[in-house]
Design a protein that fits this description.
It is a single chain. This protein is an alpha/beta fold. The chain folds into 2 domains: about 220 residues, CinA-like (Maf protein, Alpha-Beta Complex), CATH 3.90.950; about 220 residues, Rossmann fold (3-Layer(aba) Sandwich). About 40% of the residues lie in helices and about 20% in strands. The longest helix is centred in the first third of the chain and has 23 residues. The N terminus is likely disordered.
Length: about 450
């Protein structure tokens, strides 16, 4: 039975139970069995629930799904999905296959530990048939949990799992409706979905071009289902924790109207500077170009979406990762990164971004430039200002109305060390330079010549 209108979690679970043609298994590791519980408690579960299991013990989990992977990882989730699906079909295909749409729901979660010292997150997956006997479809997503207690995180996961099952069977006509269904009641605030993967004929038959990984992750941003997305050079889109955990990070924010080798050179120089500046862990530092999503962008903003995707793909082709965020303030960018790493964070910026750091009004911080600066540099954050060609610097000064700033030209470029902000900002700027919070990038004579000509 399909209910019309907006449904709460209870009625979504009940409507699936009452359909009579949706039948499958639940396997949940960590954070209880909150998804299965909804279907068991609302009534009519015998028509939906073939099996529910929690392989909570590590040895039991390894015996069922194989060893060699972390317990909260996409590798473990895929193994769970394959194992549960094969068992379900082997046990029920012959007797129920003609009239049943099978599904296997799995999740593996690290909820908040007793001491509150971990990063609560998890993986959730669903394999399902749109029609009896039809090929399977997969949905895999990664979630970050934001509730303050373990029990609240379990409750939120239960709602999310019910949403996923209901959306898979009733809201696959387009990606926007599908994501709205998944996010219902728990996003934003309680759960953040920073990775999404879909596969199968259901997602190919309905506007398949909009179900690409690029489009889906932009949609996660436009619908405020996540604060940011990360696309790495090696693995494509991955969750924050996979990209950033215990890693030093270099971020290059900008508008990047024409991504070029100059930008690649900026990133390479900044990564080298970070290697020289301090002792790093064994992990290699991550380089991320950072784009800000246009304000008020929607899936229907075809031109803005196309421009954003073009920039993302062009930056990705330069050989580094891409971070896309909502807000252009770099103290907000650093706050996102600091959720997942305590290692050094470095911003490599052009003169234009440096002007913005000191020139923005920061209305949401009470107009306080000092507060924004203190938030930015609070946890092992430094700025590497990269020189800019003189004519480009002049264009940005006009664009930002920063006419009170002065500088000394050096071989056709404007180095950060030669900038002279208006008083009283000059004293703050000089303090940050002297204290090495701002570490200007130094170029060779040849590099300055190339930059001046490229600009």
């Amino acid at each position: 039975m399909e209910y019309k209108g907006s449904l709460d979690t209870h009625h979504k679970a009940l409507s699936i139970n009452l359909e009579g043609s949706v039948f499958g298994s639940f396997a949940e590791i960590g954070a209880g069995q909150e998804v299965a519980r909804w279907f068991l408690q609302v009534g009519g579960a015998s028509a939906t629930v073939a099996k529910t299991i929690s392989a909570y013990d590590k040895e039991v989990s390894d015996d069922m799904y194989g060893s060699g992977s972390r317990y909260v990882s996409i590798e473990r989730l895929r193994s769970m999905l394959e194992t549960e699906w094969k068992q379900l079909l082997a046990q029920l295909q012959q007797t129920h296959g003609g009239e049943t749409r099978f599904f296997s729901f799995v999740d593996t979660v690290a909820a908040r530990n007793y001491a509150g010292t971990n990063v609560p997150h998890g993986w959730m997956g669903l394999r399902f048939q749109a029609q009896p006997g039809a090929p399977e479809n997969d949905v895999i997503l990664h979630v970050n949990l934001h509730d303050s207690t373990n029990i609240q995180e379990q409750e939120a996961l239960g709602v999310l799992g019910v949403n996923l099952l209901y959306a898979a069977f009733h809201q696959c006509s387009d990606p926007e409706a599908f994501l709205a269904g998944i996010a219902d009641l728990v996003v934003p605030g309680r759960i953040e979905i920073d990775y999404l993967e879909v596969r199968g004929p259901v997602f190919q038959n309905h506007s398949s071009e909009k179900w690409s990984s690029w489009d889906l992750h932009v949609l996660l941003l436009t619908k405020r289902i996540t604060e940011a997305v990360i696309c790495t050079r090696e693995a494509g889109f991955i969750p924050f924790i996979e990209a950033l955990h215990k890693k030093a990070v270099v971020i290059a924010p900008g508008e990047f109207e024409r991504p070029s080798s100059v930008h690649a050179g900026m990133m390479a120089t900044a990564l080298r500077n970070l290697e020289k500046e301090k002792e790093l862990s064994d992990e290699v530092a991550v380089g991320l170009f950072c784009l800000t999503i246009p304000p008020n962008i929607t899936l229907q903003s075809d031109r803005e979406i196309a421009t954003l995707l073009r920039k993302m793909q062009a930056l990705h082709d330069l050989g580094y990762g891409v971070l896309v965020v909502h807000d252009r303030e770099i103290y907000k960018m650093s706050a996102i990164i600091q959720r997942f790493t305590s290692q050094p964070i470095r911003f490599v910026v052009g003169i234009s971004v440096l002007l913005r750091v000191f020139g923005d009004a920061y209305v949401n911080l009470g107009g306080s430039t000092l507060k924004a600066i203190s938030l930015l540099f609070s946890q092992n954050v430094r700025i590497y200002p990269y020189p800019m060609a003189t004519r480009t610097a002049r264009e940005w000064i006009q664009r930002l109305n920063a006419y009170e700033w002065d500088w000394l030209e050096v071989q056709g470029t404007v180095p950060a060390a030669s900038l002279k902000p208006p008083e009283p900002l000059r004293y703050l700027y000089e303090y940050l330079l002297a204290s090495h919070f701002i570490l200007p990038v130094e170029l060779t004579t040849n590099e300055m010549h190339e930059l001046a000509n490229a600009g």
